[in-house]
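pls design
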């Protein structure tokens, strides 16, 4: 990784870094990307952060961020599995780094790297790990010396929002996926279908006669999450399990948080 003082590529240092976060971080702040360093006033929205391979004279380093998830593909039973693990990808982790860096006052990610390794403990399981340095401008044309000004953001696509704009509007914050847990007990002994994106999953009001119920999937969030995030979380999870349809998503709240549940379904004959 480019940049002085950064040593965040080793897998063995994860436990030590996580322990240090408890001391360095802001108490009570939910940060799955584990920012370690000095927090400053927010200057930019996550999408407005720039990614650079090396630090320039205009930048000062605030600290480092790293995030990881565990991927295990296929249709299976889920027992409080994090949405971030079921939908584990470098894209999700990079977005998580951006959200954490922006919250810490960063304006740039330096030397972002992602690595994966197979896990010997589970068949077909792998761990994905992404890390970067966090920096902000201290001088130059890009510097913002007014910390109380509105955070810098990207202009939406014109004349209509771009595909990436729409995706970010629909999908919940990447960081929330680490708080959303999933429960699913298959109603069928076997189901095989390639994984889908959340946008490819159809939300239906009732189960068609041509379809088979695959089981109910519950997405929950302790402490409460935005209902829109939970509802879309159900669609994302359904897609990762290969289910093309979700029937009757309904949401409810309890003393421990809120949840949304939907019935996964598929045509009896999939083409």
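designed seq:
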């Amino acid at each position: 990784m480019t940049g002085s003082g950064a040593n965040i590529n080793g897998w063995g240092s994860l436990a030590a870094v996580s322990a240090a976060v408890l001391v360095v971080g802001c108490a009570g702040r939910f940060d799955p990307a584990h920012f370690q360093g000095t927090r400053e006033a927010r200057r930019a929205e996550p999408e407005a952060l720039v990614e650079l391979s090396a630090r320039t004279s205009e930048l000062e380093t605030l600290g480092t961020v790293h995030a990881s998830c565990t991927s295990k593909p296929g249709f299976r039973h889920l027992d409080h599995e994090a949405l971030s693990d079921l939908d584990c990808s470098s894209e999700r982790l990079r977005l998580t780094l951006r959200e954490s860096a922006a919250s810490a006052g960063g304006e740039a990610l330096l030397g972002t790297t992602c690595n994966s390794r197979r896990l010997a403990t589970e068949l077909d399981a792998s761990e994905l790990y992404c890390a970067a340095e966090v920096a902000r401008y201290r001088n130059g044309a890009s510097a913002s010396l007014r910390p109380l000004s509105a955070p810098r953001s990207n202009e939406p696509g014109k004349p209509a929002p771009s595909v990436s704009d729409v995706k970010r509007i629909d999908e919940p914050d990447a960081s929330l996926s680490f708080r959303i847990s999933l429960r699913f007990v298959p109603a069928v002994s076997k189901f095989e279908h390639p994984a889908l994106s959340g946008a490819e999953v159809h939300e239906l009001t009732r189960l068609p006669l041509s379809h088979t119920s695959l089981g109910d999937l519950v997405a929950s969030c302790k402490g409460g999450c935005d209902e829109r995030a939970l509802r879309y979380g159900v669609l994302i999870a359904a897609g990762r399990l290969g289910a093309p349809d979700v029937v009757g998503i309904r949401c409810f709240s309890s003393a421990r948080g809120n949840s949304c549940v939907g019935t996964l379904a598929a045509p009896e004959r999939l083409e």
